[in-house]
Design a protein that fits this description.
The chain is of the alpha+beta class and 424 residues long. It has 15 helices and 11 strands. The strands form 2 sheets. The chain has a 6-stranded mixed β-sheet with strand order 1-2-6-3-5-4, sandwiched between helices. A 5-stranded mixed β-sheet has the order 7-11-8-10-9, with helices on both faces.
Length: 424
């Protein structure tokens, strides 16, 4: 697929349009981007979309919303909370059938967009605040969701590693906030915060698909989207510490221990070394041919799973594994050995080639997903480096072995977090 670059088609607003007839559906995404500041504010930001999706002035309950979406040829609306670097993102997504596939003329896109706007900007109110029933119910649901993190031991381990590693940075704040701070939130305070977000937050609107020109020209007349934004403190702090790694351990009742090792890379998506970091991560632990997978899991059977991942806005790399806690030191040492090997250039041409191909193939797969296209470009905007997927592929193709060696030499182990069984 020949990907076209997103175009900013309206100077008043971050309105980005990728025109393509590749997909049978059209995608609309509205983002409110907010700086991570406190756990309480993070909890409020997470609570707001949960309440908004419950109903609006014209569709005051879920059944009416569901019926309207069915009438709109099975359109789908989703609300999500994301964390990218030290930014918390409220994402409102609408996906509907591309009108060119309908057998008759329709104003489907306009009606579906109006429904999305109704849910975001016209919530159900009582006494100039959110409907109390919805507020109380969604507050309890969010509390349960925060508590449920411990049931997902993989995510629980990573989040605790991040919290320890970034305890003095905003990135250490969990995207859903904390139970303690959530309990302090009152309805009036939350509604005031919602109004502030709507008026002041940095926003972006993404359109991916085949939209009629009239719909795009009239989009602001159809919407309550404001054209201004004042909350723009969205910079992510990049730290690169040269210090001894800190070790933390938690005991829970479980059969399989989890180990998370956090590294500072000093490399973000805005860096020229970003493309080498992508390939390096694939070689280290981002694929089944990787050094860690082959050495730690396949050859030595020291892990049930092992992989590496990168947070490209914050410049962090994490190596995560499921192990017997008795083998934790062996896995730590072997991980460091594999890093040292890459830094010394001790990897084959085949390993290097497969690592590049793995990244390129993954990026090419993203070309076939409207959501992946939008997600890729959003990250490029957050990092002040507008770039299409095809442009990223071209940069990856030019990576040399020496580039991976440079990346490996830059990595600094910052934090080790072990989640082990009480009886282990």
């Amino acid at each position: 697929m020949n990907e076209q670059q997103f175009s900013n088609i309206d100077g008043r607003f971050n309105l980005h349009y990728l025109a393509t007839d590749k997909f049978k559906t059209n995608l609309v995404q509205i983002y409110f981007m907010l700086p991570l500041r406190t756990e309480k504010e993070a909890a409020m930001n997470a609570l707001i979309p949960a309440i908004l999706r419950r109903g609006s002035e014209n569709y005051p309950d879920n059944q009416l919303i569901k019926t309207e979406l069915e009438n709109l040829y099975g359109s789908a609306i989703n609300f999500n909370i994301l964390k990218r670097g030290e930014n918390q993102l409220l994402r409102f997504s609408l996906e509907m059938v591309n009108e060119k596939f309908l057998s008759h003329r329709s104003d489907l896109t306009k009606k579906a967009f109006q429904l999305l706007n109704d849910l975001i900007f016209r919530p159900v109110l009582e006494n100039n605040k959110f409907k109390q029933k919805y507020f109380e119910q969604e507050k309890e649901v969010l509390k349960n969701n925060i508590e449920a993190l411990i049931n997902d031991k993989y995510s629980y381990t990573i989040e605790n590693c991040i919290k320890k590693m970034c305890s003095r940075e905003k990135y250490g704040i969990y995207k859903l906030g904390s139970i303690e701070e959530l309990a302090k939130i009152e309805n009036e305070e939350l509604f005031a915060h919602y109004k502030k977000i709507i008026k002041q937050a940095k926003m972006s609107l993404f359109l991916v698909g085949n939209f009629k020109r009239k719909f795009i020209d009239d989009i602001f007349e159809q919407s309550l989207l404001p054209a201004s934004s004042e909350i723009v403190d969205d910079n992510t702090e990049l730290l690169y510490r040269e210090k001894e790694a800190e070790y933390y351990q938690t005991e829970l009742k479980l059969n399989q221990a989890r180990l998370s090792m956090g590294y500072r890379t000093g490399i973000t998506r805005n860096s020229t070394a970003y493309y080498a970091l992508l390939v390096f991560n694939s070689l280290l632990g981002g694929s089944t041919h990787s050094k860690l997978f082959q050495e730690v899991r396949e050859k030595r059977s020291l892990a049930y799973y092992v992989s590496s991942s990168i947070e490209t806005t914050k410049g962090l790399l994490f190596i995560n594994s499921g192990i017997n806690s008795a083998n934790s030191k062996k896995v730590e040492n072997l991980t460091q050995e594999q890093l040292a090997k890459i830094a010394a250039g001790d990897f084959s041409e085949e390993e290097f080639s497969r690592s590049k191909k793995s990244i390129i193939n993954s990026l090419k797969q993203d070309l076939d997903s409207n959501k992946a296209l939008a997600a890729h470009f959003l990250l490029s905007l957050i990092n002040n480096k507008e770039e299409s997927i095809n442009a990223t592929i071209k940069q990856v193709e030019q990576i040399k072995r020496s580039d991976l060696i440079k990346v490996a030499k830059k990595l600094r182990l910052d934090t080790i977090y072990l989640l082990k069984g009480k009886d282990d």
